[in-house]
Write a structure and sequence with these properties.
The chain is an alpha/beta fold and 345 residues long. It folds into three domains: 60 residues; 40 residues, no CATH class; 206 residues, 3-Layer(aba) Sandwich (Rossmann fold), CATH 3.40.50. It is built from eleven helices and 13 strands. Strand 7, helix 5 and strand 8 form a beta-alpha-beta unit. The longest helix has 19 residues. It is globular, with a radius of gyration of 20 Å.
């Protein structure tokens, strides 16, 4: 018997207050089997265009959407190719962001780092591994939704003083066992000390939250003056969304409650007081495009993709990159970077 998920109507756009039009209906969870049928609405205001679930799961039932959802899987390998890839990324981080190389620099590392520039998807992934943050030894950083903890461990090794917040108790226990300082729960309920962090980062988290503006307000409260917020989230204007429609992987109903574009995310962040805002799309779209193609041909998707699918993914990275070159609004994900007004700490 399916578990009942209570819902509440969400008739007006939470960003601009406009009415909505129906975008998709009869949607089901094709990834992790959460119960129910869902529909997505889109803001009527063409200057906004936010996409959201209506009705939306009630706050007290959101946890039921994650009964079989995993945030703690680690997939790092140690093959020769993986080791060379990590050396290329290490060199790239040193030259672009000022990080001290973890394993030292050599001619091979420099050559590998240069070759990384030829692969737009790999370069975007390298940027994401340090959340686009320049080196700041001893700087305090908080990751919201740290999952496997890989980003926290990497940034800690590169000199950051890191903490994390996660709702998945297994992920929290794993992180604590590896020595990381982490908190279980949602950001607002933890009541962390104001102006505590030089940087706050989250990757594909804000779309899961029932109150994204409240989340941004709390991030601003916790940042030091001059501190930086970095957010990755799916882009509702993506090439893949135009191409695959309701089969686009990043719709992910019912877990993705809001889907943003560069315009409405920037507007919401300005409203809560952030400044020096940059919002653009990335070329990390190969996996999303391949998975969306599979969803368009099958009612379910087996995760992870393997074998020949990896080659398709590499090819799709270039498709995403070309789409971004044609129109920078067509990337599969948004990269949002903003600063809290005030002198840099």
């Amino acid at each position: 018997m399916e578990v009942e998920i209570r819902t509440r109507p969400r008739l007006h756009c939470p960003v601009c207050g406009s009415r909505a039009k129906l975008l998709y209906q009869g949607l089901r969870d094709r990834l992790f089997g959460a119960p129910g049928e869902w529909r997505l609405k889109k803001c009527n205001n063409h200057k906004c265009g936010l996409v959201w679930l209506d009705p939306m799961p009630a706050d007290e039932d959101i946890g039921k959407l994650y009964a079989t959802y995993y945030t703690h899987e680690v997939r790092e390998g140690n093959s020769l190719a993986k080791r060379l890839y990590r050396r290329a990324i290490d060199d790239y981080h040193g030259r672009r962001y000022g990080y001290r190389a973890l394993d030292g620099h050599g001619m091979l590392d420099r050559l590998l780092g240069i070759l990384l520039y030829l692969h737009p998807g790999a370069r975007a992934e390298a940027d994401a591994r340090v959340m686009n943050l320049p080196a700041k030894p001893g700087g305090r950083l908080l990751e919201i939704g740290f999952g496997s903890g890989q980003t926290l461990r990497r940034l800690q090794a590169l000199g950051w003083n890191v903490e994390g917040v996660e709702f998945d108790p297994v992920a929290v226990n794993n992180a604590r066992a590896s020595g990381l300082k982490v908190h279980l729960g949602d950001l607002a309920s933890l009541n962390l000390t104001e102006e505590s962090f030089d940087a706050m980062v989250s990757s594909h988290v804000i779309e899961h939250l029932p109150d994204p503006e409240g989340f941004l307000n709390e991030c601003r409260r916790l940042l030091k003056p001059g501190g930086t917020l970095v957010v990755y989230t799916p882009n509702s204007r993506a090439f893949g969304h135009h191409l695959f429609g309701q089969d686009w992987l990043n719709l992910d109903p019912p877990r993705h409650l809001h889907l943003f574009n560069s315009t409405n995310l920037t507007a919401m962040c300005r409203r809560v007081g952030f400044s020096d805002i940059s919002c653009r799309t990335t070329a990390r779209g190969g996996g999303v495009l391949v998975a969306s193609w599979y969803l368009s041909r099958s009612p379910h998707l087996n995760i992870p993709l393997r074998g020949a699918d990896r080659l398709l993914e590499e090819m799709a990275h270039y498709v995403s990159w070309v789409a971004c070159k044609f129109n920078n609004d067509l990337g599969e994900e948004l990269l949002f970077i903003a600063r809290k007004s005030g002198p840099c700490a």
